[in-house]
Amino acid sequence: MRIRRKAFLSDLGMGMAGMALGAMLADDGIVHASEPSAEPSSEGTAGQTHFPPRAKSVIWIFLSGGYSHMETFDPKPALNQYSGMTFDKTPIENPVNSPLQKKRFRSVPSEEINVRDVYPTIFPMQVGWKQHGEIGVEITDWWPHLAKHVDDLCFVRNMWTTDNDHAAENQFHTGRHKLDETQPSIGAWASYGLGSLNDNLPEFVVLGGPTRSDTRESIDALYLGPQYAGIPLSLDPANPLPFAQRHGGQTLAQQQLEYQAIGRLNELAAVEYPEDQDLRARIRSYELAFRMQAAVPEAIDLAKETEATTKLYGLDNDATKVAGKQLLAARRLVERGVRFVQVFPSSYGSWDSHQKLKENHTRLCENVDLPVAGLIQDLKQRGLMDDVVVVFATEFGRTPGLELRGGGNTGRDHHPNGFTIWMAGAGLKRGHIHGATDELGYHALGEGHYVTDLHATVLHLLGLDNRRLEIPGRKRLDIDHGRVIDEILA
Questions:
Q1: What are 210-226's pLDDT values in tens digits?
Q2: Can you tell me the distance from the alpha carbon of 218 to that of 470, in angstroms, rounded to the nearest whole number?
Q3: Phi/psi at 148 (5° precision)
Q4: Burial call 422-444: b when 16+ CB within 10 Å, e when fewer
Q5: Alpha-carbon gap, residue 468 to 264, rounded angstroms
Q6: Strand 57-63 relative to strand 340-343: parallel, antiparallel, unpaired?
């Protein structure tokens, strides 16, 4: 009988399984989580940054559905001035005729069917706005609490993407249109590149998401390996880890023995199948799940916070409680070494205001305004603005024109051609406005920034060169890498 070499070595007790496990722990950043290195390996950089990092962690806040950039962070007086007129009747150049329209627009249905982005009748602003802070940035009256912190924020007003449907939620996180091969998410790349700062907590945590099953790509790792995907956590203090709870009657010591036995069997199998990434992830998940049973409940135990802190995040108000809990938990997680916390404070498509934009955005802004302002204030007072990057984003903006489908007269459609996000924290200019859209808020001016420019910038702040995060046999497109937005770096 022919015996495979690896099985033979294992049976002779050469300790290959233990060696394999040790290598995995090193790959995962548990052994070398902070030592800089010049070159990444094929198994990730194992916490070895390409250059000195400016930030340790990221809180990535995503508002699903597409908020209106004009009614939030990029008000446009021209919408009121030319309200009710069509684009071609104003003295402003018709944005539909701009070469940027075809350059950046990629509709899935035919142009004859899908008329999105080209509704020509200008819809006025649905809310007032003022200038705020020393920078004099205009934001709308729906953000009274965040308005007090604008001098800590960095606004990027010339973002653009290509998917005009809600697959843009995945595109915003992976950089790929839904007609293309899917790529790992930004959180997975950060996890893959950096490893762990805390052996007892995941590197990439997700709160409030994925927003539904078909947005799983927004937190997935794909060919990087399942161990780098986002781990959704519940903020239910009684059951934050339903997949790792001990069954009734089982003691902690008994469960530990059970996990050790399972782990040993998996390690032996890993010798036979060293390239099996699912098996590698399973070994790690059992070990991590056991350790998380103590670490996660403590990390998300908001009852330990002072009354002043919980009020700062709006936990005393039903309108702000959901977002407040998530953002307070996010702060607690990055304090404890979680690298990337992805927060979905609103349910799937909530901001998708095809109709009743004023009603929807009034309510939704109220839900997140106070908690997000509370996060910024809390990070500042704890000295964490020098360690944490905050990203506040959505998948696209809304059309300057009035949506007319179904006889509508109160909303705006999807608009990927130009929109606004903001960032704050480590390594970023504070009180800064970068880029612009045209007078009507239609196109991002100049080259603008495709979504992977944001990815490259965040990874750069973490000490990673996005172009050097390569996987053997996986050729990424140039657009996948993006370019660092140097203009916003401090």
A1: 999 899 999 999 999 88
A2: 20
A3: -75, -10
A4: bbbbbbbebbbbbbbbbbbbbbb
A5: 35
A6: parallel
Residue 88 has pLDDT above 90, yes or no: yes
Mind listing the domains of the chain with CATH numbers? 57-235+305-488 (3.40.720), 241-299 (no CATH)
CA distance 44 to 36: 13
CB 49 within 8 A of CB 29: no
How far is it, in rounded angstroms, from Cα 448 to Cα 419? 10
- Residues near 451 by Cβ (< 8 Å), separated by ≥ 6? 159, 161, 171, 172, 175, 482
Does the structure show a pLDDT above 50 at 182?
yes
Mean per-residue pLDDT, 61-87: 98
Q: Tell me the one-letter amino acid at 79.
A: L
Report how far residue 413's alpha carbon sits from residue 401's, in angstroms, rounded to the nearest whole number: 8
- What confidence tier does 15 reach under pLDDT thresholds 50, 70, 90? very low
SS3 content of the chain, % helix, strand, coil (to 5): 40, 15, 45
Is the separation of the CB atoms in 387 and 103 below 8 Å? no
Q: How many contiguous H segments (helices) and E segments (strands) does the chain have?
A: 13, 13
SS3 167: coil
Q: Annotate 107-158 with DSSP letters as a single string.
A: -SS-TTT--TT---BBPPPSS-EEEETTTTEEEETT-TTGGGGGGGEEEEEE
- Tens of pLDDT along 110-145? 455 555 667 899 999 999 999 999 999 999 999 999
Are residues 219 and 236 in contact, defined by beta-carbon separation less than 8 angstroms?
Answer: no
pTM for the complete prediction?
Answer: 0.85
**Number of residues that make up the chain:** 490
Segment 277-299 shows an average pLDDT of 66
Determine the Cα–Cα distance for residues 207 and 230; give it in Å rounded to an integer.
10
Of 58, 380, 391, 338, which is closest to residue 204 (Cα–Cα)?
A: 338
Contact 120, 128 (CB under 8 A): no
Identify the CA nearest to 338 among candidates 392, 286, 298.
298
